[in-house]
Design brief:
This protein is an alpha/beta fold. It contains twelve helices and 13 strands.
Amino acid sequence: MVDMAESAGHSAAMLFTLLRPALFALEPETAHGLTLAGLKLSPLKSPPPAGPLAVEIAGLTFPNPLGMAAGFDKDGEVPDQLLGLGFGFTEVGSITPRPQAGNPRPRLFRLEEDRAVINRMGFNNGGSEAAAKRLAQRQSRGGIVGINIGANKDSADRIADYAEMTRIMAPLASYLAVNISSPNTPGLRALQDEGALGALLDAVLEARGKLAIPVFLKVAPDLEPSDVDAIARIVLEKGLGALIVSNTTISRPALKSRHAGEAGGLSGAPLRDLAQQRMRDFRKATGGQIPLVGVGGIGSADDAWARIRAGASLVQLYSAMVYAGPGLPRQITAGLKRLMKRDGFSTIAEAVGTE
């Protein structure tokens, strides 16, 4: 028997199939702008209720484990509309202290044959002041909205940027995600080095003060085993709420698209196996002592379930929505219910790390 949420997901998927050729005829960033505009005009629906897929981590109850990853809603314009699509949570950003234009266009590329995306956006956003105003206005609506924070490209002190963003955004966020893993801001990934990471997290935790807002850290998939061990050790030492594994990759597996050689971060289906392996690596390195959020190449309920079984308490997607459309969240959550029942688990938490 198909439930109403799954039926809604299939209806949205059919509509998207009709509209997709027109959207794909547009330059990707233009199409993305139209998608945001369409979401803004859509009627607001309530966030999904907590049900059999509910997950508790970092003092938060997620109604289901599927979230929209950062990068889709950079300025916090449509968090409630995304929750209304069936996501258990959404992560807005990355947001930087000051507005910045990002890298020159074109900077977003569909790799249709690979069901992938390459982006070199460069933290383009309208800055903290405008986003904070917007996010303050929606706070009473509820739902879990994480805020992904970054540093300005031309900042003389990036750690100070993260501290400033923490002070501004912590009162407005369900959780803060510290993004030091984008490949599109020169030198940013150096903050993953052991010494720099410790100093950065100390500054963020100090700036958070006494607010009970969990801090998550988002890392790159392109890490050496020693990096994984060092990051795991620091994250456990600092008592972070979760680790998000992982951002886009600068590696290039075998790709078919003519855009395969474009610079930037690769996401979508070709990232799946690398991100899955990093999930296993961090699960082992942390000994299951910190919740992990799996992101990268998740496009189906089977992908999400495999990431959960590898160690993820929550999962996120973005690129798959480019190809599957707005019905995907409900399709995945319906599929997760079936997979959980098939494998004899009564909660998502029971399944985490059981592969």
